[in-house]
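Tokens for chain A. Residues wanted.
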């Protein structure tokens, strides 16, 4: 169940990144993709009857693998840093071009490049 919810969140986020034009909404959609992928990874690493791998008394039991959870923690930190940096870039673009519409910003950048090449 959790794996399918994670995949659905991931798909919704990917569709929003492709379809939406607003850069802030695209960043929020990237956060949704991040949450969906993390939920899917946690669901894959989940074992309901597993024991902690440092249990000395436990013999012949199923142990939980800590690697997926360590990867998820690393992914959370890395994705937070990426989203923070991307938000700074969006803020700079809005400050310079006064718009969050990606198509409008592309047109303005192309116009700036064409004017710069003619001089």
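Reply:
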């Amino acid at each position: 169940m959790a794996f399918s919810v994670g995949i659905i969140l991931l798909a919704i986020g990917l569709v929003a990144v492709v379809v939406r034009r607003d850069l802030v909404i695209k960043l929020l959609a990237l956060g949704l993709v991040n949450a969906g992928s993390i939920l899917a990874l946690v669901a894959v690493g989940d074992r309901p009857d597993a024991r902690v791998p440092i249990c000395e008394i436990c013999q012949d039991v199923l142990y939980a693998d800590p690697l997926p959870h360590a990867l998820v923690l690393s992914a959370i930190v890395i994705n937070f840093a990426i989203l923070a940096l991307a938000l700074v870039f969006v803020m700079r673009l809005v400050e310079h071009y006064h718009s969050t519409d990606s198509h409008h910003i592309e047109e303005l950048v192309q116009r700036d490049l064409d004017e710069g090449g003619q001089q």
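Helices lie at 2-19, 23-45, 67-97, 102-118. The CA atoms of residues 22 and 101 lie 5 Å apart.
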